[in-house]
Design a protein that fits this description.
alpha/beta; 6 helices
Amino acid sequence: MSSTKKSTATNDATNLNSKLRVTIYARYSSDDQREESIEGQLRECKEYAERQNMVVISTYVDRAVSARTDNRLEFQKMINDSAQKQFDVVLVWKLDRFARNRTDSAMYRAILKRNGVNVVSAKENISEGSEGIILESLLEGISEYYSAELSVKVRRGQTENALKG
């Protein structure tokens, strides 16, 4: 190999090693939603990763599973796989794809952090400074509120439908 080709190959390897390794987590919560929801999340996350000079190495997808629970097969697999140090970032379309429960979010973020992995939102511009802490907390609280409020409305609608016969 000539010195020019060797240098280029070394630079390519160095550039790849300096890029953050990303896994994408995508989810939709009900059977009423469609596969296009996942496709859109994956597309926007891949575009974000490319703009940020990140390399996507894997994806985890949960279909028709609520983020109000951590009983999600692919989510749990991703958390467990984070211990293998194969990725640096979990990229989600929005934070509510990761969790709609503040307790679960905090617990799983702590596990990921211990494993050297950060959670990043492709659509929510959250800084890494002190203002990012409050914004992230606010977004997680709004997500949990939305989920709880939706549950109340669905139950009320079901009750009304049952009363009507």
